[in-house]
Each structure stands twice: as structure tokens, then as C-alpha cells.
Amino acid sequence: MPVADLKSHLAAAVRLFRVPADNPDLTRAQFDAFSKQIPLLYFILITNTLAVAYTYVPLAPAWLTMVVPSVLTVLAAVRTFWWLRQRHFVRSDADILRNLRATNWLTVPIAVGFTAWSFALYPYGDPFAKSHVAFYMAVTVIGCIFSLMHLRSAALIVTLLVDIPYVIFYFATGEPTLMAIAVNDLLVSGALITVLFIYYRDFADLVASRKSLLAQQAATQALSDENFRLANLDSLTELPNRRRFFAELANAFGDAERRQIRLAVGIIDLDGFKPINDNYGHTVGDRVLIEAGRRIREVCEGFGAHHVEFARLGGDEFGLVVSGDPSDEDLAEIGARIGDRVKLPYQLDTAHTGLSCSIGFALYPRSATDAEALYECADYALYHAKRHARGRTVIFSSELEAEIRSRGVIENLLRTADFDAEMELVFQPIVDAMSERTAGFEALARWHSPRLGLVSPADFIPAAERIGLIRSLTQALLVRALAAAKTWPDDISLSFNLSAHDICSSDGILPLIAVIEKSGVPPRRIDFEITETAVTFDFVRAQQSIATLKAMGCGISLDDFGTGYSSLSHVHRLPLDKLKIDRSFVADVNDNPVSHKIIKSLTGLCADMEIACVVEGVETRAQLESLRRLGCDYIQGYYFAKPMRKDAVSGHLTEERQRLGDDVARASA
Questions:
Q1: How far is residue 64's CA from residue 68's CA, in Å, rounded to a whole number?
Q2: d(CA 379, CA 456)
Q3: For the purposes of burial, counting CB atoms within 10 Å of the CB of 435, is it exposed (0-12), middle (13-18) or buried (19 or more)?
């Protein structure tokens, strides 16, 4: 055999008698299994040793039957106690390897000691006693192999140190029975060693597969944890998302309910965010959302008096769950802090922009007795803030609760309302500023409810939008408005208001086009008024609808300009014919330089863009004269006429012609 092969075989043989150090998982598994079976090994040694010693007490010297067995038994008992203690300790991989190697070394003196003692007893025995020694050695070595099966090297050491001397010794006796026992033991031991190798291989494979399974489980758990994190995280702002918010709300509500303490829900809406998206694009809008979220989160984390959970609910809306028994004062304070931080300027490359935020809070148990209702109350408080206290914090109160009940009554009655019988249109003149001649009428809806009486459009129009009736209402009112306009002179136009739902719906404005075509009124006589809010609701779809109406020949007016948060980009990107300046700037136009400058700027904008300027809310001659000087084209207000029923329009136009004719005659005279 070549020397290299011989060395290789010798190295492989040596490895069989060593504890491997390159597989910590296998070593730890060996130690765990071995530490459970080693007490059984020592039990076999102690019981078998005491049995042989008892057999030889009358035959052999006392030092062999009493002293040596006692020493061996004590050593075995000490080692048993030591191993039993190890089962309760947490050990490092290095410590485990050290203990297993120490066990390997200890098998040598233990095997040699028990074997030498049995050989020393043999000469003193009679045939039965000698057979007992042979039986003792055979059974003991088999028990040791089974007990040491998880530590293959130790089992091999014991087998070689016991079986080889055992076979040689009994063959040397020349006794056929003992020789047969020795051969039998040798064959059984060989078979057991074969089983040991197979078992050890399977044990190692099992440990490896278990490690692989644990790795797969760990990877699966990590993936599950990551999926859970992503499912509860807003991908843009990396804040908790809507799903996580409602889970936290449910947990916090349950805790507040058990402890009988207060809990608050807050909803934050950024005022003026959509114009940023429209002016600078969605990339900049996303950066503003991230920065606004970061600022609000810092306020929440720094509000030490109470625990505040913060999440992005969607779009430019965020949610708060304030636990720890907050008071109204606490909510007002956190709202003020958030508002102050959000208002700080945002650096957007070469431009600065500012935001504000409206916040609605609702408090358990005062506002609601379940989590969902509490959120709805906070949402209504936000709605109230957006309409009446923009940029401020509103806490849900008994007054708002009464308002909700009133809103619910309006919605319920509106669902069952007979539009033909209960809805009425009135018409307010739109007058040429210079000639003071009526150029058109704006159609205004009025609802005479049999139960509630006259309901303001400010109440029933939003209600119709909320319950999905606004488009049906718009179509019904447009039919009646066009029927009235058909009876007017051809030079008199009709202005008609459209909501965001009318111009941003999924099926577009086809129903309105059908109504116009069926009416017989030329589209050139129709002006559709659209608010800034409607435009910003879905600018792309609104732009498409407006372009379609414009292509038909209809006029387009942007209503209430200057009161919302839309940007001038809307004015430039829409095919507008008129811009309506809100009445809030007119009341003090002669007394407030700011109002005067705003109207002057807007009329200048209209002149530059070659579109007409319409001013609402004119009530005095002085206001009219000032607006004329500022370049306003059309006037609308009580100075000329209040909204009138359709049957009064003809009389109004007749009186106007007479008045203007008299004025012309007096001027000529």
C-alpha cells in the first residue's frame, strides 16, 4: 500500500477517536443527548460491579471485593452527580467541546480500571464465579456501547480497551466455554459498533437537517415579520399606516374601557397640500408629506404627558391616538404644537412653501362609546374645522353632536325628497359693470322641505354630495334652469353651478351634455361655474370635463376665487372665460387697503389673461364705483337685485330697460 494511502487511513482512524470541533451544532446535540444517557452508563457499571463483588466476597481478598469496588463505585457516583448538574447549565460551544474531550480521556482510566479489577478477581473464582466475570464484562461493554452511542469516539475507546484484552485473556485460559463467550462477545460488539456507525451517521444527518429546518423557519419567520411590518407601514413616510392605526385604536380603546379612563382620537388634514402637488409635482409633494409626517411625529414623541400613537391614514391625512387620560386642555396643547410645527416653511429646492393643518379630536367616553364611533366623531370635528376653523384644532362637542343629528335629518329627508315639488330655482342678475345692463342670471337652488321648511344650500348641497344624490339633483335642476332660460332673450346667459362630483365622476359629464342638447338652448348662452374645491378634487378629470364643455361652446367660470387653496396654475391650465371674485373682498373694498389691492391684482390678472372678471356681493353704489375704477367687468349683488323667482325675470328685464331708457333720455336732454 502506498505511504500516502497508509497515512490517509491512519488519519481517518485517528479522527474516529476524536471529538470533531468543526461542527458546533453537532457537538452541542451530542452533548445534550449524551448528558441524558451518561447517568445510565454509570448505573450499569455500579450495579454490575456490586453484583460481581458480592459473588467474590467469600472467595477473594477483601481489598478486591470491598475496597476497589467501593472506590470505583464512588468515582462513578461522583461522575453521575456531575453530569446530572450539567443538564441545568447553559454552556458555550467551547465549554461543551472541552467537556466532551475530557470525557474521551476519562474513558481510558475507567475502562482500564474496571477491566483490570475483573481480571484480578478471575483467578479466585470457581467455575461459576469465573463465568460471572465473563458475563459481567460482556454485558457491561454492550451497555457502555449503547450508553455512549452519541459520543462515537468514547464508545470505540471503551470497546477496544475492554474487548481486545477480554478476548485475549479468555483465549489464553484454553477453556472452550470461555473462549466461545469471548468470541460471541466480540461478534456482538462488532455488530453493535456497526449499528453505532450507522446511528451516528443518521444522528449527524438529523442534526444537519434540523439546522436546515431551523434556518428555514428562521427565514420564514423573518419574512413573515417583514411582511407584517410592510403591511402595517406606510411605504412613503415609513410611518404606521391606516391598518396599524385602527389596530392601535382598538387596543387603546379596550385598555381605556377596562381602566375607565379617557382616550382621544385625532385626525389631521394638511391645508394647502394639493396646490403644492399641482405646482411642483408629486415628487415635491411626497417630500412635503415626508417632512410634515416627521415634524408631527417629533411633536407626538415629545409630548411626554401622554402616549401618542401617530400614523398616516392616506393622502395628506394623519391620525392620532392619545391615551393616558387626556383632557381637553391636553388635546388643545398638542393640536397647537402640531399646527405650529406644520406651519413652518418647507424648503423645496429653489422655492419655499407653507402649509397649515386642521385637526379634529374626539374624546372617549364623552363623545362615543365604541372605537368606530369615536373615529367618526373625530372625522366630523375635522370636517367642521375645515369648513369653519381652517388651520385650527376642533374638539368634538355637544354642539357638533347636535349638528350631526341635524345633518342626519337633512340627509334622510333629502333621500325621500320629491325634487320636482320641493326644489325651486331662483335667479340673480349678473350685470355689466359699465352699462348696468343684465348680461345673465345665476341659477340658485332652494329647498322647501315639508318638515324643515326652507333649508339653506350650504346645508343640503353638501348633504347631497355625501349621500351620492348631487348628480341627480344637478341634472334635475339643470333641466329646469334651461327651461327657464329658453324663455329669456337670446342675449341673456344662464350661469349654473357644478359640484366636484359633477365634473369628476367616472362616467364624466355625458348626462349633462344630454340635458343641454335636449333643452334646445344654445351652449353659447350657458356658463358653468366651478369652484376651486371642485377643480382640486381631481384636477386631471376636471380638466377633461371642462375641456369637453368648452368644446361644445359653453362658458366656464371659476367661482369663489381667492378663498381656497388652489394655485394660479389652475387659472393658467384651464380654458376659463370668467373669474368670480368672492364677496368677502367686496364688503370693505373702500375701507381696507388690503381688499382693494387684492381685487386690483385679480382684475389685472383677468385683463392679462383676457378673461372677464365678475365680482359678487355688491350692495352699495360706492362699492360699484370702486369696482368700476378697478376694472371689474360684471357685478352681482343686492345693489341691483336679490335672487328672484323665474316668473319675475321678465318683469325685472322690462323695468331695467325702462330705467336705462330713462337714464339715456335724461342724459340726452
A1: 5
A2: 23
A3: exposed
pTM above 0.85, yes or no: no
Here the cell at position 111 is 475502562
Query: Which residues sit opposite 442 in a β-bridge?
Result: 428, 495
Continuous segment of H or E residues that includes residue 556? strand 555-561
* Cα gap 89→96, rounded to integer Å: 11
Phi, psi dihedral angles at 216 (to 5 degrees):
-65, -40
**For residue 303, which of 343, 270, 332 has the smallest C-alpha distance?**
332
- Tell me the three state secondary structure of residue 43: helix
Peptide bond preceding 365 in cis form (omega within 30 of 0):
yes
Sign of CA dihedral 408, 412, 415, 419: negative
Give the residue from 453, 451, 467 showing the smallest Cα distance to 411: 467
In single-letter form, the type of residue at position 210 comes to R
Integer angstrom CA distances of residue 61 from 54, 130, 177: 12, 15, 26
Grid cell for residue 626: 370702486
Report CA 128 to chain centroid distance, whole Å. 83
C-alpha cell at 503: 365634473
CA nearest neighbour of 550 among 530, 580, 520? 530
Cα angle: 382, vertex 388, 389; to 5 degrees: 70
Q: How many CB atoms lie within 10 A of CB 633?
A: 21
> First and final CA of the chain: distance in angstroms?
144
For the chain, the 3-state helix, strand and coil shares in percent, each to the nearest 5, are 65, 15, 20
A 10 A CB-CB count for 171 gives: 13
The alpha carbon of 349 is separated from its chain's Cα centroid by a whole number of angstroms, namely 30
Q: Three-state secondary structure along 195-245?
A: HHHHHHHHHHHHHHHHHHHHHHHHHHHHHHHHHHHHHCECCCCCCECHHHH
Closest CA to 479 of 413, 437, 420: 420
For residue 523, give the 3-state DSSP assignment.
Answer: helix
Q: Angle, to 10 degrees, between the axis of helix 176-231 and the axis of helix 127-147? A: 20
Cα dihedral 503, 506, 510, 515, rounded to 10, equals: -60
Residue 328: burial class (beta carbons within 10 Å; 0-12, 13-18, 19+): middle
Q: Which residue has the cell 344637478?
A: 474
How far apart (Å, rounded) are the C-alpha atoms in residues 538 and 544?
10
Residues 121 and 60: beta-carbon distance below 8 Å: yes
- Helices 93-121 and 127-147 meet at what angle, rounded to 10? 170
* pLDDT by 10-residue block (mean), the chain, 669 residues: 43 46 64 70 78 83 82 80 70 69 72 78 79 76 69 71 74 75 72 67 65 61 58 80 88 90 92 75 84 89 80 89 89 90 78 78 89 90 84 87 79 87 92 91 91 84 86 91 93 91 78 91 93 73 87 88 56 82 80 82 86 90 89 90 92 88 56
Nearest to 322 by CA among 375, 387, 278: 375
Using DSSP bridges, classify how beta strands 634-636 and 356-364 pair: parallel, antiparallel or unpaired.
unpaired
